[in-house]
Design goal:
Structural class: mainly beta
Shape: flat
Distance between the termini: 31 Å
Radius of gyration: 18 Å
Strand content: over 45%
Number of helices: 2
Number of strands: 14
Order of helices and strands: EEEEEEEEHHEEEEEE
Length: about 210
């Protein structure tokens, strides 16, 4: 499957949420959301990262966080509360490639794409004709740490653009039975959900 970086522009939204028990036996519930606007020409990107329910160990409390990143050409700006920062660099700048690697490139997400099961006729996802597939734990890549026993169950659905072969929507549900997950390191056992959706491929997007 082709990576999303074949597109000239797009918007996307990612949600990672979990609920269960942490490594100290206390209830744990948290969510991380990432919204992205991307344009190849001129090279620019905006990322908005929000967190809720994740403890701030320096403050000893749990509070929401919001971080804005802007990349315009070879300059990266970040804003976190009252703190602002600018980085000037070259092709190695953070966020130079679209989205996080595992969502931009399905080859990193699925260990065996042949095990994706077609699920009905094409559907539209944000106006994009997409083919829907289902999958289970055996189709997911080892980097998710599933092979180490953290997940006892994982399944989901993925929608892939009929033209372009990029992921337009993704839903994964996991049941974790032990600690050590790279996606929810504080969770000892519970449920983890990942959602991803892409819109406005190759649209006229001005990142401001």
């Amino acid at each position: 499957l082709a990576a999303a970086n074949t597109l000239d522009s797009y918007r996307s939204h990612t949600l990672l949420a979990y609920a269960g028990v942490d490594t100290t036996g206390q209830p744990a519930k948290a969510a991380v959301e990432l919204s992205v606007e991307y344009a190849r020409e001129p090279r620019s990107r905006r990322l908005v990262l929000s967190e809720s329910g994740i403890s701030d160990k320096s403050q000893g409390a749990t509070q929401p966080n919001l971080i804005n990143y802007y990349q315009i050409g070879n300059k990266l700006y970040s804003n976190f509360g009252s703190q602002c920062m600018m980085i000037t660099g070259d092709e190695t700048l953070p966020f130079d490639t679209p989205d996080t690697a595992f969502l931009a490139d399905s080859n990193l997400l699925f260990a065996d794409q042949l095990h994706l099961t077609p699920a009905g006729p094409d559907e539209e996802v944000n106006g994009i004709a997409s083919r829907r597939y289902t999958f289970d734990i055996g189709s997911l890549a080892d980097w998710l740490d599933l092979s180490q026993g953290q997940a006892v169950k994982a399944d989901g659905q993925v929608w892939i653009a009929a033209e372009g072969n990029y992921i337009t929507r993704l839903q994964i549900d996991m049941v974790l039975a032990s600690s050590g997950s790279t996606l929810a390191p504080d969770l000892s056992q519970g449920n983890l959900r990942i959602e991803y959706e892409l819109s406005d491929p190759n649209a006229d997007i001005a990142v401001e």
